[in-house]
Amino acid sequence: MKTHFPASILVLFSLLTLFQFGFSLDIVQRSCKLAAKRDPYVDYKLCVKSLRANPSSKDATFKDLVLISIEQSKANATAIGSEITGLLKGGGKWGKYSSSCLESCLEVYSEAVSDLKLGLVAVKMGDYETANTEVSAAMDAPLTCENGYNEKDGEVSPLTEKNGGFFQLTAISLAFISLCQ
Ligand SMILES: *[C@@H]1O[C@H](CO)[C@@H](O)[C@H](O)[C@H]1NC(C)=O
């Protein structure tokens, strides 16, 4: 089969594609790359995915992205809180110890939501030190929640995966904040 494309056009096209992948990363990709370089806990793909979930990330400044990232963490903490409430409502299948673990997880996640709200306020005011403190506090929630289960033999946390996901999201927020400091 004969191609109608002159070779030079194909070469040009390949070069443009290369440029696109190599150089013209957008603000989300560039910021996530920086964050991942800064902090080994940052998962580049999750970072891009979670920021893109908010359409305004497209024409965002870096500071907007910091806010969007914290909002994502906050939304996650809120959703995890609702899931825990749902589990507790599930009724009798939890023993006494497990329900008390779930209740304390619910409490730490609702504190995390408050911490993240304060973190958002701090970023808006340009107070990155306070933002760092607040987001770091929120980041303790998954560890505190898991630890409750680890204190008793045979207790299996139903929240391990969610705790891990929230930890990763807050790690992204924290890396973004530290890039501002
Ligand atoms: C929280 O974020 C993680 C990504 O780290 C995601 O996998 C999980 O589904 C989210 N949880 C909720 C309840 O939204």
UniProtKB/TrEMBL annotation:
Extract one GO cellular component term from the record: extracellular region
Q: Which domain of life is it from?
A: Eukaryota
* InterPro entries listed in its UniProt record: Invertase/methylesterase_inhib, Pectinesterase_inhib_dom, Pla_a_1-like
- Gene3D superfamilies from the UniProt entry: Invertase/pectin methylesterase inhibitor family protein
Per UniProt, the keywords (alphabetical) are: Disulfide bond, Signal
The UniProt GO MF terms for this protein read: enzyme inhibitor activity
Pfam families for the chain = PMEI (PF04043)
| Residues annotated as domain Pectinesterase inhibitor | 23-176
Q: Which residues belong to the signal peptide in this entry? A: 1-24
* NCBIfam families for this protein: PME_inhib
The record's similarity note reads: Belongs to the PMEI family.
Q: Which PANTHER family match?
A: OS02G0537100 PROTEIN (PTHR35357), PECTINESTERASE INHIBITOR 12 (PTHR35357:SF17)
The protein's name in its UniProt record: Invertase inhibitor
